[in-house]
């Protein structure tokens, strides 16, 4: 473990300079002022710099190595987009500025909505939701208000068991009841089960496409036909859109509502609770229900428009996470139609290449072909007393981030791998070689895997205790 910055204590040193206060101090409630100095670390500037550089170099990140984290799309995102989003013309905006002052920002919102419509085939988009799950929730609110407006009492949302975990949660928060549709042996929606469960109380069929097994529904048109015939809407969780860009337009296959994860597909890193964006798109019959304000173009002017009687209202303060929108806009403009399609093609090629290599040593419940990700299984290693978690920990010793494990729940000992479109063949080969080595270790020396990781700053933790009783505080004994 590294020393904390408090343990770098160096009497008499200071890394900061606080100017003398030359203003009169008035109105302070002396009862509330502290009696002892704060327990700030006593360190010089150099110690501070070294401390943070040491921490940063221990951290694993996408600039350091591959991140095959299934479902998360941890790809390399061009740095130029960060620079563009950091331009003072964007970062210096205030959300209360008059719309005449922020025409450029409004144009960006308007043009990005149009680009997303073009990419997905939907008729309208709102960029307000700030996460994938937030987009799902907004989509469910739109469906709820749509049926309310039609005076139809529909309360159920059908969700396949291969959906992303946030889907049923969004359904419940919005007041619907989720009902699970099982997958068939091929990992796709069991159409007979769908036909059995759907009725005139079904509001929405909520489909993750491609699903969390990385599979595209071969019978998508039939599925959508069944749902529409029952008078229900089709919601597409489009967070995995990096597999479909330039190939499938959800609007063309009559998806009614969808969301995108800009922070997976369009150049903002995913994860860590950082700012995200989950725009929601709808086809024209649902346009009136989108959140307000919308940005309109009148001649050469862009204006905010909130006068939408049927709108679900505001779903976030101001206009969403604008900084993420700027990066998505820059990414789309730079790649153009051809580049956007290449993203999906590379994602699919990489995933299928890796799946073939890894399936020599790990089980594969659903052989594919897959889209952008696949789910292998460590089930075949159980005979040596080795679990998927041991494989994941051992990968850390080889300097590779672990894949998503034990999800989706329908695959025993799941190892969910998304190589992403930006990794080159040599990196994929290296990952496959390491996975092969680990399978060999499981057969010949499983003890190594039980001990892993042994090369990381922190060895294997009691994960439940680390999550429930984290030790995050330095004991600040002298503070009051
Ligand atoms: C398929 C899918 N749907 C929804 C989400 C939820 O997105 P968020 O984490 O932004 O809420 C994710 C997250 O990665 C996802 O992979």
Q: Can you characterise this structure?
A:
It is globular and about 75 Å long. α4 packs parallel to α10 (322-358) and α10 (322-358) packs across α12 (425-444). A hairpin with a 2-residue loop joins β8 (294-298) and β9. With 480 residues, the protein is of the alpha/beta class. The protein is built from 14 helices and 12 strands. The model has no long low-confidence stretch (mean pLDDT 94). Helix content is 35%, strand content 11%. Strands 1-7-6-5-4-2-3 form a 7-stranded mixed β-sheet, with helices on both faces. Strands 10-12-11 form a 3-stranded antiparallel β-sheet, with helices on one face. The structure holds pyridoxal-5'-phosphate. Pyridoxal-5'-phosphate (PLP) binds at residues 71-72, 131-133, 164, 166, 208, 237, 239-240, 261, 264, 276, 278.
Please render the helix and strand layout as text:
Elements: H1 45-58, H2 79-85, H3 88-91, H4 103-120, E1 124-126, H5 132-149, E2 156-160, H6 166-173, E3 177-181, H7 191-197, E4 202-208, H8 220-229, E5 233-238, E6 257-260, H9 262-265, E7 280-282, E8 294-298, E9 301-305, H10 322-358, E10 374-377, H11 388-397, E11 404-405, E12 414-417, H12 425-444, H13 446-451, H14 463-468
Parallel strand pairs: 2-3, 2-4, 4-5, 5-6
Antiparallel strand pairs: 1-7, 6-7, 8-9, 10-12, 11-12
Helix pairs in contact: 2-10, 4-10, 5-6, 10-12
